Amino acid sequence: MSSKSFFVEDDAEQSNKLARKAKESPFMLVGIAGFVAAGLIGAYKYKHRGTMSTSVFLMQLRVAAQGTVVGCLTAGLAYTMAKEYLFDKEPKENSKPLTN
């Protein structure tokens, strides 16, 4: 058995994976940035929430986070569909030719 762990990867390999994933799906980076931003904003607002109870605050934060996820998924789906069907003018190999 080698001394290298199964789960440990090289830094160059990790950056190549991240670059490839960012190129394949650009909204992944938007999702990660939104996750970090929601966490930071939520932590700040939790500290300055006033008399609001913790459970109500967490419920509102959960609804805002879910709305952000749904918005990012919708934007990503719209981008993918537009790229595939509107901007790509080459016919696909398995599509039928248009007849007039």
UniProtKB/TrEMBL annotation:
Domain called HIG1: residue spans: 1-91
Gene3D superfamilies in the cross-refs: 6.10.140.1320
InterPro entries reported in the protein's UniProt record: Hypoxia_induced_domain, RCF1
UniProt keyword Membrane, yes or no: yes
Gene Ontology biological-process entries: mitochondrial respirasome assembly
CC terms in the record's Gene Ontology section: mitochondrial membrane
Transmembrane residue ranges: 27-44, 64-82
Intracellular or extracellular location(s): Mitochondrion membrane
Keywords: Membrane, Mitochondrion, Transmembrane, Transmembrane helix
The name this protein goes by in its record: HIG1 domain family member 1A, mitochondrial
Organism: Drosophila pseudoobscura pseudoobscura (Fruit fly)
